[in-house]
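Progress report, Aim 2. The chain analyzed during this reporting quarter is listed below.
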Amino acid sequence: MVGLVLGVGAVIMAAPALTGLPAGGFDVPVSESMRAEQVLNDRFDAGGMPIVFTVTAEAGVDSPAARDRGEAIVSALRGSPYAKQILSYWTTPQQQLAAPLAGSDRRTGLVVARITGGDKYAPGRARQLADSVPHDANGVTVAAGGPAMAYSDIERQSRWDLVKFEAIVTPVTFLALVWIFGSAVAALLPLAVALFAVAGTTAVLWQLYAFTNVSVFATNIGTALGVALAVDYTLFIVNRYREEIAQGATMQRALIVTMNTAGRTVTYSALTMALTLSAMAVFPHYLLRSLAYGGVAAVLLSLVGSLVLAPALIVLLGKRIDSLDIRRLVRRRAERTAVPDEQSAWYRIAAFATRKPVPVVGACLIALLLLGLPFLGVKLAYPDDRQLPDSTTSRAAGEILRSNFAQDYAGTAQVVLPSGVKSPADVTNYAMALSNVDGVLRVAGPNGIYEHGRVISAATFDSALKGDAAYLTVSSDRDPFSDAGQTQLAALKSVPAPTKTLYGGMTQRNIDNIRGITDRIPLVLAIIIAITLILTFMMTGSLIIPLKVLFTNAISLTAACGVMVWIFQDGHLGGLGTLTTGHIGAIVPLLLACIAYALSMDYAVFVLSRIQEEWAGSARTRADNARAVALGLARTGRIVTAAATVMVIVFIGISASEVAFMRALGIGLMVSVIVDAFVIRVLLVPGLMALLGRANWWAPEWLRRWYERYGLREGNDRAAIESPRVEKAMIPD
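Predicted structure tokens for the chain:
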């Protein structure tokens, strides 16, 4: 009853998050581009995210219908307190500024502006403005684009993708669980826990939003992990319970043994995963911190659900847990599970890997490293409208801009001179020098417009010069996310300036945001390595196995990243329906690394816990090591495969997203799970453990004694498990 009340409460509290969270969080707050933005806002009232309206008329850009529509958009922008620096082909008096706002085919004209509020508020304000103007009528078509609208479209698309995810994953997961358990009632238990975890995670994120920034993508990731892990953990709990029942234990005894064995392993796995995902909180981008919040909340609530809600439902259902059996399917499964461990397929595969470790390990490493090779050429970039399907307004506007205009409006840079300007002439000379840089179309400054080192207009813009501060606007033909765009920015910065400068614009933001990730990667790696070494030692008592876990997880991750780059950056397999731009969304490899590594640890914990259990009860010879590995895999292979199947279903749901970087993440995670469950755990781990033999379990004697006293071992308190008093205390007859 308590679980039901909490679940309903979580659903009510989570509802506002579905429409209230922003799609921002990509920017680094103290970066150069953000400091330039701050000066533009504070000194010049000229900051904001760009918005671009394309106005296309069959009768031409100078037709009355096109002019009327363009002027109507300008009027709407001027009526908004959030729109700044409004220019249009039809209303801008300076010919040198108006002419570039007409397309090469003379059918499309532009209205451009900046929307204040940063990536937290500007997208929503841009959406309101775009919805307030007439679009397709009288032979004129209007599309709203630019970064502000792209963010709004990403936010809206992410919400639709979440609905699609749940529509795909829920029924398919249920069918998979029916196949795994052979019982419709047993299959409902993991889904009940998943509902609790997902609703709880979303509610937590919405409550956090009252105190700190939270990105809408945290709900997508939190939902995916909530479903995957709740099903995963509950699957292990229910499976172990049914194993104990099949061996003749009473319901009470079976549940106690389950909680002292599988329950401990699930707890340990969740702790490892939560700590790994929490490493993303060290990044300065609130998007990545949001994903850490969502990931950790999903892990912990999945753990609570599997350890509290699932056992309560097991007790409530009693023998009815196996009702609604698919009888013929159950008989077949019973026949399969009745096979002794030494005769199972998983035992034979592991035994093969331990008998021939050198060729098995060599073949696995060669294959996985080949899959990972494309990752060496990874290129990271900021997301733009090309991450969206072509049905969105920002993507439509972006395609028009890229095909019909010489200027790349996303590549426009602002050069801010925050102080120290001694005379307007110094700014003029600097602007003229900047206009000579390759790929620069023109530079607009306080005293005129410059092109290729000469003045093309003496029009003055007094608002661009305030006291000893000024700013220049540099128009470019370079894609801000390309190598050419970065080369041009470096050339602009090499031009001697009259005083200190700050560069704004998408090229600088792209560099800043990627640097905000790469600068923190050493710290994140140190955190993850420390977590892996400490927690794996606490579970196994070995100093060698933690190093092996690090190695195999890194190999699995490299293969997944390589496949992702090969498809979504290099364009193979048609980019699986996405537009290939030659780079990957900057956050995707990092997010893939953290989640995939955590999932690899998840499987490592489940398999190693059973291997360690067998090893601890053996004579601890080299032959016992090989047998422990084979038995551990035999007793976890089926359930790990089942869990991996559910994970794959979940990640297919993510890959159904229409946002390219989310699709890339889903495919990368799917590949990671497949590689980890069917190659790493089945072949590479047994092969490596056979090569190392008894050395797998080595630790200094003093550390071994410490582990025997304090280590976290599954089922190490057998007396507690066997105690009738504990049985009666936990579950009444």
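The longest strand covers residues 49-57. The two ends are 20 Å apart (CA to CA). These observations will guide the mutagenesis work planned for the next reporting period.
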